[in-house]
Amino acid sequence: MSEVFATTGTIAAIATAVVPQQGSVGIVRVSGSEAMALAQTLFHAPGRQVWETHQILYGYIRHPQTRQLVDEALLLIMKAPRSYTREDVVEFHCHGGIMAVQQVLQLCLENGARLAQPGEFTLRAFLNGRLDLTQAEGIADLVGAKSPQAAQTALAGLQGKLAHPIRQLRANCLDILAEIEARIDFEEDLPPLDDKAIISEIEKIAAEITRLLATKDKGELLRAGLKVAIVGRPNVGKSSLLNAWSRSDRAIVTDLPGTTRDVVESQLVVGGIPVQVLDTAGIRETTDQVEKIGVERSRRAANAADLVLLTIDASAGWTEGDQEIYEQVQHHPLILVINKIDLVEESERKTLQSQIPNPKSKIVTAAAQNQGIDALEVAILELVKAEEVQAADMDLAINQRQAAALTQAKISLEEVQTTIVQQLPLDFWTIDLRGAIQALGEITGEEVTESVLDRIFNKFCIGK
Q1: Residue 235's closest CA among 181, 314, 305?
Q2: Which of 70, 85, 247, 380 allows an S-S link to 124, with CB 3.0 to 4.6 Å?
Q3: How far apart are the C-alpha atoms of 414 and 429, rounded to whole Å?
């Protein structure tokens, strides 16, 4: 049995980030049958404070043998089953930083607790029936959310908005299975099955699975974010565009071409979608060895990006260098950014428009004047909506594991339909139907293997 299944005993872990000279409070969480006894050993609550569930006590943490003071702290008590793990849970709320929480954790480990495995608190919550697997994964997504929309989608999973339709689909499959098995066991006493009605019901289930599968791309987009590379010739205003967009001076801006020698990164949120923006070195032929490295990194960044912003200098017109870069990136999802438009007379703009290619998306900006950023964000969201950049438009967003299980369920249901059409015996109908039921059960945890739990909970932080 793997380590993630070793859920016996009392566990302890630091449940907050540990950063030197940062954070006013650090929490050490303890869960298990000995949690209360351990707290009473380490924590001294002066006066007549009552040690009851869901109470916060004020006091001191001391070494049980030497009585040396370790920290002045609060103790939160949550007795089973009214706790996150449905076990007795205590939390020592210490001073933040490094030393206090580490010393308290060490005292817990020296007095009967063991260090929790990654995700073991949430695993215990699942095994004790407080959460299903979709809710547990929702917790991990919420902790790692990079935007408000990602957080809302994670909360939807945590509130059971994914589990409910999955359970309903599984229940529908179980009803069909019961009908079939009843005919197998009591064929002479029951009317024959309506093949067309069974197929119709299976098609409805498969259609709902298809709808849920359509949310996978949105889930990936919200979890991983959108990687956007700003590319173009030197001195076309790429760094100015990044600075205007991020509202900060992340990149150095000068009149000298080739100022940016490496990829500069900024994290933004556009329409609820986390966006990683990469300002790349200007792409051109050069003999400068350092600049050559920057140009090569720019090309790699463009190839790895989900979306390319090809930026040109409107005052210079459409150049041979712009055309070469365009030919390299035109097969990517692309927005053509015509920058420095404020330096071009109105009469010259029509000439410029006739010179440049006509990709699906094109905007004008004056990045140095902070103009055109709203139009850029609108263009990005329009590409997302049009699924040029993969996404969906639902409240729910499944992950890769859930998508794999749903896909398997759909394939199994298709096999059931084939079996019915071929008029094979009823026993054959049940084989793939059971496969669909098992796949749907894997999503919520009603059918679960040790390896699945390993994959899910090993991705959690230790204190969660």
Answers
A1: 314
A2: 85
A3: 11
